[in-house]
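[[Local backbone shapes]]
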Amino acid sequence: MSTINSNVINFMNMAQDRDMTERKQANEPLSRLNQRLKTLQDINRSILKGESSQEIAHAALSRMSRLIPLQQAAVVLHNFKTGEALVLAGTIDDHPAGTRVLINDILTTEVLAQQEQICYVKDIAALEYRTIFLERQLSKDLHTFLAVSSQIEGNLITELYLFAFQSAAFNLEHQAIAREVVNHLAVAIQQAQLREQFQLYTDQVEQQVTQRTAALVEANQELEAFTSTVSHDIQAPLRTIQGFTELLFKKYNDSIDASGQDYIQRILNSVKSLNALTRDLLNFSHIKYTKVKLTEVELSVVINAALAQLDFDLQARNAIVRVTPPLPKVMAHSTLLMQAIANLISNAIKFVAPNVQPEVHIYTQIEQERVRLWIEDNGIGINPRYQEQIFRPFERLLPSRKIYSGTGIGLAIVRRSVERCGGSVGVISTVGQGSRFWIELAQSEHNQSL
């Protein structure tokens, strides 16, 4: 009885083992399919991550070695235009990843002859004719050879090389896997190369921009140094011309007729204009190189200083100036800010229509941590299309340049002075209705705490 039971148990165990074996064999294709899908997903993830061609190829080979019984593999990018091949991953004919070789040194006659996506040699030793390349592989005891290619674009072809010790090592499923991988690799490598080319182009453009910017900065510095030197050196001869002309006018006034006196007056007027121009040029160039330390500045003090500087002009033009509190403290450089405000007030009382009494209104507007100082006038106004260019040096607009004197540098000095104070400047204006210039600066921490 015990013998019968033992036989039954053995039979049941054998049946269970057979069932497990069959179940395992049935699951193997599904497992391999999952591995194939995971390999392709890894390649797609590499594309999305923006990895390089070499990284993508290496990841593909690493995965594929789990699916195909291979001993040596490589991904090679052929460029038939240059006749060179770049080993992207793996090793081929002792050439590691990153090396460049001649295509004819590694591309077999079989691959060239078939001109198809796949070239499969079941046993290299059985070939009647073997290239030097295949002879070297056979000397390493590699018998099976599989080459799968996919064209990227133009003259670029991605090639996957697989070798195995055993003959006929790669079945139809292995070849199908290799084709799938190569097709995905071709897309991934093309995308990676486009990114690399774009990055290279971007780097080159950035380098050119940097070089040209540096050259422009150097040219501007040289130009400003030249302007400063010329403006400084020209003042002495101008003073000489002015002095001797005035002396000539006083000493020989009675001996000079009306035409001569008119000529002398024109010389004096031109000398005064040239003096003003050289003075403004010097101021403009010096502002850039002035050491600026921003401190807490009382707007009321700076505005009063600017008005005091312009007292003679204000009285001569019978100008009305209204200053409306509050005038909070700001972070600025007091001298530069005073010069900017003085220039704006000077323009406000100068550029008015004939027989119109100049009126200037100065007030502030506080927004969060910024203070905007407004200088409003009843002048001739500025066409909106020119409201940006007036802050550039020597920009004087017609017809005002024919009627109003000036060097065309005043507003450029305003902008540079305000920007050195960490602020900004602008204007809102309508022709015939006056202008509203504004200077925006950081509010002092003292004001913010109140």
Q: What stands out?
A: DSSP finds 13 helices and 13 strands in the chain.
